[in-house]
Write a structure and sequence with these properties.
This protein has a 7-stranded mixed β-sheet, with helices on both faces. By secondary structure, the chain is an alpha/beta fold. The chain has 2 domains: 183 residues, Rossmann fold, CATH 3.40.50.1240; 33 residues, no CATH class. A hairpin with a 2-residue loop joins strand 6 and strand 7. It contains 8 helices and 7 strands. The radius of gyration is 17 Å and the shape is globular.
């Protein structure tokens, strides 16, 4: 059965505008890839690309970005994330002119926290996604199967903060990743539990920004909190 996820394009656009309005010194965000194809064989996961709608929405997001700050792109090595980043850049270029962008890949944006894919999938199929995620967040899954979720979230946040610190203030960092990379940040750093706040939709995002030497996290469900 193909999971149902909402497209969060307009929500992300509005949140970008909301955060830019506070005039941050630097801004970046981690975003789930756009709408994707699914396959019954879990070994095909890294190769699943975007649907036509996913491609169109990726370009639409890029075309709605303001000319400044212009995007600097990072992505998971999974095909759908690279495709989202590439098409976002294409949409931006169609509206504002060519950039010198390349997409930088980083392991922190991949599902690096899965240590045994076969066992993890077997548990997921048996319990269902919601129960599996809660078991992970409660640290009930051995680390030889899934890395401690707090360690995982800290690695992702450390990556985001480092890239933000090194970002030109005329750029907006965009980290194209997966919903499971976003869930633990919401759970452990923003107080947004999965059962209460729902799934991470396509193009759904968490923002990190710097203002006056302080760092903040925010999304459409939570006002800025200091890191």
């Amino acid at each position: 059965m193909i999971p149902k996820y909402k497209m969060k394009l307009q929500t992300t656009i509005k949140t970008i505008d909301k955060i830019l309005a506070v005039k941050p010194d630097k801004i970046a965000f981690i975003m789930r890839h756009s709408e994707r194809h699914f396959h019954e064989d879990a070994r095909m996961e890294p190769f699943m690309g975007l649907t036509d709608n996913g491609k169109n929405k990726s370009m639409e997001l890029g075309s709605t970005l303001k000319k400044h700050p212009d995007p600097q792109l990072f992505a998971s090595s999974f095909g759908r994330c690279i495709e989202t980043a590439y098409l976002l850049d294409k949409g931006y270029c169609n509206n504002h002119g060519k950039t010198d962008n390349t997409v930088e890949l980083d392991i922190a944006l991949t599902p690096f926290y899965i240590n045994n894919i076969e066992k993890a999938i077997a548990m997921l199929v048996k319990s269902g996604t919601d129960i599996f995620l809660r078991s992970w967040f409660n640290k009930e899954i051995p680390e030889d199967i899934m890395l401690d979720p707090e360690k995982a979230s800290q690695k992702i946040l450390s990556f985001m903060k480092l890239k933000l610190q090194n970002l030109d203030n005329k750029k907006i960092g965009i980290f194209v990743s997966h919903d499971w990379n976003i869930f633990p940040i919401k759970e452990f750093h923003m107080g947004l539990k999965h059962e209460e706040w729902g799934n991470v939709g396509y193009l759904d995002s968490i923002f990190i920004y710097e203002k006056n030497g302080k760092y903040y996290l925010a999304n459409h469900q939570k006002n800025a909190i200091e890191l």
